[in-house]
Write a structure and sequence with these properties.
This protein has one domain. The termini are far apart. It contains 5 helices and no strands. 24% of the residues are buried. It has 129 residues and is an all-alpha fold.
Length: 129
């Protein structure tokens, strides 16, 4: 694995596991939600658990589609930054972690896919049907 691929992997995983740890701490311990704690846990951590297996196995495809999931957390953070000014520090942490995951996962999927010879483009020397 090339160095830039490894850096993207570390950035993506740091953002991912940071969100996985930080969100339940924030919504269950630091500033408890008014909702049931189990519902809050499922809503904050549930979507992040979907790509866990592929993230651990370093599968480029999983890193690519996990960006759809991280968009939920980016939108959540951008909404809360206006809605809850008293929790802005926590919202900024969520946004930073989500951006780390988005950027790291995007570049890891790209670079690792190139290393493995994966492509979504048609090769020019292939006959078109």
């Amino acid at each position: 694995m090339r160095e830039k691929t490894r850096r993207a992997l570390i950035l993506g995983q740091t953002g991912y596991f940071g969100l996985l740890i930080f969100l339940p701490l924030w919504h269950l311990i630091i500033v408890p939600s008014e909702m049931n704690k189990y519902v809050t846990f499922v809503l904050t951590v549930g979507p992040l658990l979907l790509p866990l297996r592929g993230i651990l196995k370093r599968q480029p495809y999983t890193y690519a589609w996990s960006n759809f999931i991280v968009m939920f957390y980016l939108l959540h953070g951008l909404t809360l930054i206006w809605d809850r000014p008293d929790e802005r520090v926590y919202v900024v942490i969520e946004l930073v972690l989500a951006m780390m995951m988005f950027i790291g996962c995007s570049y890891f999927a790209k670079f690792r896919g190139q290393e493995l010879g994966l492509s979504i483009r048609k090769k020019k020397d292939e006959p078109q049907t």
